[in-house]
């Protein structure tokens, strides 16, 4: 039998896969590949056959990557195998199939309940996946704010309403200030009394003062220590603080989850561009589509994705062909543009700081409290912040056109620049407010620990500032759509003036629009602690913005000259949103743990800071439980926990690297298998000749 076995060995050694493996090992000896005739290979083949048979039994025939004839054979073998099973096994298999079918149908029906499913699908087909990713991102924020509103309303606002109206035989334990000077407990909200002009109601609606200040919208209205429902005591200050931690943790985990999914898609796309082309060309079409409109939308979506890929490859080729002189010119231009950007950022930050200080020093004049000038001074920080947020992205979008980046990187860089404008403006405003609240010069803070004369209930004042920023941002978005976009569309369409035609139709700037909603979401995260119902306003705001942006996109904007890919954009949008969330942690942490709570209003008036409700609650637990919680908070637990966390992190990193190497080896194996097929086809053709 040796003569019959020698020829296959020599033939297998000629395969490209064997030669590549031999070169990779660096071996020069003649290493005979394992043949199917050996005992080890026969055992491996038997195990493979058994495993394949088990998979055939478990998986439905339609899930196998085989042709229809082979799927029919698998289905017939499965039906033949069921005849030899017991009644119990037949019932289990039948019930398992029925359950999977029911779950699949429920999943298919639930897809029709997705918010704005049809609208986003139409936008994807007409304008590409890049703009579609913006509207999907907006839908995510609508759902996130709605869940935050449900959380705060259920655990904070609803118990207060129940206690007020005496539902479920509930009683109220109002907070009585303890060991506090009487001067610190004076808080007289500026509620409207007597005959009030309509102008006053409009002003209160825009600024959060007046009648809105004495509603459930702001922190100062909540003054209940506990709600007794039958024999159960509901600790409202603890619930308020835990609900704050809960919505921050929920937002963080949800963003991380979506970011990981986007990072996985982005990693797969960047790993092998050729594989991405093959997926779109050979596996991009959905053969379940029967509606002509849906087929047209799917065709446009694939067209935009391929156009984006080709545009990026063209830019990469252009970058690779640059001469040294061209590289020096483009790098010098980028340095000059970045100097301009830094100057603009510095000017915005300094202007916000000076305007906020001026407003805080001059808006407390009681003689001109109702004058339009005082109203303008009071709203001056919000107006300047809105102007900076509106003009900054326009300048950055204009400057980045001269830097010749790829469309995906252009969006990322513009977003990073605009982030420093929008989010840092909020930080400067809060820093200015805190400096005024904790300004203890001339013994202003001695009785209460904060500037009680200027801010008797500083939490409500901060909530009003966040409320004004959100309302003004919403007004600006509507004003731009009504008084800029639509008039520009009419002028370009019906006027033949060369100057107007030179401006032309405006493109839908994804980076600017994303920064608008991330800026508003950061305001919502910060302001929810000071205004528990602010997420409801944010939900309504984003719901209206979706339809406003959709109308503006369809009727006044033109498709982007350089299409944007959604895979990288979605991931980067979530990264910037995560930066906004991390920024929100800082002011909330300072407000909860550092700044003394107001003694004239709110749920934490009996505590030095809002955080003190946590240790005060723990002290009411049994001794063993107290020792457990205090032990978790001690250094003896923190240091070993940190060490274990680092070990786990290094293990996960090593595991990820090992998986990456395996993926690379499998990719190489696929390439070698294709070469083996070509080699075998060539040998068969030679043998036939």
Automatic annotation (TrEMBL):
Keywords: Membrane, Transmembrane, Transmembrane helix. It is found in: Membrane. Residues 50-64 have a biased composition (Basic and acidic residues). GO terms for molecular function: mechanosensitive monoatomic ion channel activity. The chain crosses the membrane at residues 140-162, 238-256, 328-353, 379-402, 466-484, 571-595, 628-653. The keyword Aminoacyl-tRNA synthetase does not apply. Residues 34-49 have a biased composition (Low complexity). Residues 457-567 form the TMC domain. One of its GO terms (cellular component) is plasma membrane. The keyword Transport does not apply. Belongs to the TMC family. This is Transmembrane channel-like protein. It comes from Toxostoma redivivum (California thrasher). The gene is Tmc7.
């Amino acid at each position: 039998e040796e003569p019959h076995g020698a020829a296959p060995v020599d033939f297998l050694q000629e395969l490209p896969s064997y030669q590549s493996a031999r070169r990779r090992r660096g071996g020069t000896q003649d290493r005979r590949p394992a043949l199917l005739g050996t005992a080890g290979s026969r055992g491996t083949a038997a195990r493979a056959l058994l495993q394949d048979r088990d998979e055939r039994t478990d998986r439905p025939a339609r899930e196998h990557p085989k042709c229809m004839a082979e799927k029919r054979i698998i289905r017939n073998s499965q039906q033949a195998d069921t005849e030899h099973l017991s009644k119990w096994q037949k019932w289990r298999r039948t019930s398992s199939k029925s359950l999977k079918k029911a779950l699949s149908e429920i999943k298919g029906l639930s897809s029709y309940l997705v918010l704005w499913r049809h609208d986003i699908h139409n936008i994807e087909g007409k304008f590409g996946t890049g703009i579609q990713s913006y509207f999907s991102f907006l839908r995510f924020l609508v759902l996130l704010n709605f869940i935050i509103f449900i959380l705060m309303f259920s655990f904070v606002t609803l118990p207060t309403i129940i206690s007020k109206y005496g539902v479920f035989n509930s009683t109220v334990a109002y907070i009585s200030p303890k060991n506090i000077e009487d001067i610190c407990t004076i808080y007289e909200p500026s509620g409207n009394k007597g005959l009030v002009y309509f102008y006053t109601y409009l002003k209160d609606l825009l600024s959060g003062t007046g009648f809105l200040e004495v509603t459930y919208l702001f922190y100062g209205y909540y003054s209940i220590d506990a709600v007794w429902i039958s024999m159960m005591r509901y600790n409202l200050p603890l619930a308020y603080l835990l609900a704050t931690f809960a919505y921050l943790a929920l937002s963080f985990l949800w963003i991380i989850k979506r970011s990981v999914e986007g990072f996985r898609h982005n990693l797969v796309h960047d790993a092998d561009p050729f594989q991405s082309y093959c997926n779109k060309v050979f596996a991009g079409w959905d053969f379940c589509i029967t509606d002509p409109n849906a087929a047209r939308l799917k065709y446009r979506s694939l067209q935009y994705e391929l156009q984006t890929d080709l545009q990026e490859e063209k830019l990469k080729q252009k970058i690779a062909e640059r001469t040294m002189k061209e590289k020096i010119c483009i790098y010098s231009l980028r340095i000059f543009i970045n100097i301009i950007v830094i100057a603009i950022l510095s000017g915005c930050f300094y202007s916000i700081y000076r305007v906020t200080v001026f407003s805080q020093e001059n808006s407390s004049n009681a003689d001109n409290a109702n004058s339009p000038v005082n109203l303008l001074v009071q709203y001056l920080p919000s107006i300047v912040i809105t102007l900076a947020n509106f003009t900054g992205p326009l300048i950055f979008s204009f400057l980045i056109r001269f830097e010749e980046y790829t469309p995906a990187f252009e969006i990322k860089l513009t977003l990073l620049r605009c982030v420093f404008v929008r989010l840092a403006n909020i930080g400067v405003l809060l820093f200015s407010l805190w400096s005024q609240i904790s300004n203890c010069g001339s013994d202003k803070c001695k009785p209460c620990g904060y500037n009680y004369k200027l801010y008797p209930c500083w939490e409500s004042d901060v909530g009003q500032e966040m409320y004004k920023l959100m309302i003004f941002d919403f007004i600006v978005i509507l004003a731009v759509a009504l008084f800029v976009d639509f008039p520009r569309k009419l002028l370009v369409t019906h006027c033949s003036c060369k100057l107007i035609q030179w401006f032309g139709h405006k493109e839908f700037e994804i980076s600017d629009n994303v920064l608008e909603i991330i800026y508003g979401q950061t305001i919502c995260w910060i302001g929810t602690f000071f205004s528990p119902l602010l997420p409801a306003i944010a939900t309504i705001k984003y719901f209206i913005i979706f339809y406003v942006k959709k109308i503006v996109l369809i009727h006044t904007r033109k498709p982007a000259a350089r299409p944007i890919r959604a895979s990288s954009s979605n991931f980067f949008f979530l990264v910037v949103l995560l930066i906004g969330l991390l920024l929100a942690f800082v002011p909330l942490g300072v407000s909860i743990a550092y700044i003394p709570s107001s003694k004239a209003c709110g749920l934490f008036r009996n505590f030095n800071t809002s955080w003190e409700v946590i240790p005060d609650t723990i002290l009411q637990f049994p001794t063993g439980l107290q020792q457990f919680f205090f032990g978790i908070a001690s250094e003896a637990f923190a240091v070993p926990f940190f060490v274990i966390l680092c070990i786990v992190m290094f293990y996960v990193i090593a595991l990820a690297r090992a998986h990456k190497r395996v993926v690379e080896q499998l990719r190489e194996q696929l390439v070698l298998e294709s070469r083996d097929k070509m080699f075998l086809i060539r040998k068969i053709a030679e043998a036939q000749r």
